[in-house]
Design brief:
Elements lengths: L13 E5 L6 E5 L5 E2 L2 H14 L6 H22 L6 H8 L4
Antiparallel strand pairs: 1-2, 2-3
């Protein structure tokens, strides 16, 4: 999704958020539902993530770590914004017993 150069992030209804997990300091965009972290924070966090990985890590390992991190941030942002589904609803939807 490409944004117009004339529209700022604030114009599309984003709010500052601080999640329960300390590394999640960024902007929750109500238009996309995604957490958008400040560029310098992302670079710093990427460096920390890489430093924690074993020396023999592959590009696939790094991509997996980035994907997992983004998925967690997105899920926490959804939860904070009230975009959740109860376990009971999911069980009923998939025909699972309690």
């Amino acid at each position: 999704m490409r944004r117009s150069a004339t529209r700022s992030h604030a114009d599309i209804g984003c709010a500052r958020v601080r999640a329960v997990v300390p590394f999640l300091k960024g902007t929750l965009c109500s238009a996309t539902g995604r957490v958008r972290m400040a560029t310098t924070n992302i670079k710093d966090e990427a460096r920390r993530l890489i430093e924690k990985m074993p020396d023999d890590s592959t590009w696939d390992d790094l991509m997996q770590q980035i994907y997992v991190r983004q998925a967690i941030e997105s899920g926490l942002a959804d939860s904070q914004a009230g975009r959740t589904t109860s376990v009971e609803t999911l069980r009923a939807e998939f025909g699972l017993e309690k």
